Amino acid sequence: MSNTEKLRVDKYLWSIRVFKTRSQAAEACDGGKVKLNGNNVKAAKPVAIGDNFEIKTEGRKWVIQVTGLLANRVAYSEAVKYYVDNTPEEDKTAPKAVAAVFHTGKRQSKIGRPTKKDRRSIEGFMEGDTGEE
């Protein structure tokens, strides 16, 4: 990449693999999830070496410093050479995800409303039916 060429923030964050797609990176910029030196930044802003970004993604929070400009997406092992991760340890190990059940809307088994079978046994118990006749 030549020195005269400008590299957009969204393209840089996509290429170093902070975001899966470039449109996700652009949405994060527009949504105020990406800050450059403490200020919100637009997706089209040029990136310079030495810039400090604070990024909030779904999985975790990032605090990175730009050490090189990378325009094309490369393997993760290569991408890590273009930034320094200054993220505090507690943000790196943020709770990965609450149980997947909370996001699907499905009920965990044996929690919540009783099943039909459970309800019949409860009704039988409440009526004093021992099941023996």
From TrEMBL:
CDD domains (UniProt xref) = S4 (cd00165)
> What UniProt keywords apply to this chain's record, in alphabetical order?
DNA-binding, RNA-binding, Stress response
Q: Basic residues: which segments have biased composition?
A: 105-119
Instruction: State whether keyword RNA-binding applies.
Output: yes
| GO MF term list | DNA binding; ribosomal large subunit binding; single-stranded RNA binding
Q: Alphabetically, which GO biological process terms does the record hold?
A: cellular response to heat
Specify the superkingdom.
Bacteria
Could you list the residue ranges forming a coiled coil in this record?
none
* InterPro entries documented for this protein: HSP15, S4_RNA-bd, S4_RNA-bd_sf
* Keyword Acetylation appears in the UniProt entry: no
Q: Which family does it belong to?
A: Belongs to the HSP15 family.
- What name does the UniProt record give this protein? Heat shock protein Hsp15
What is the organism field in this record?
Chitinophaga eiseniae
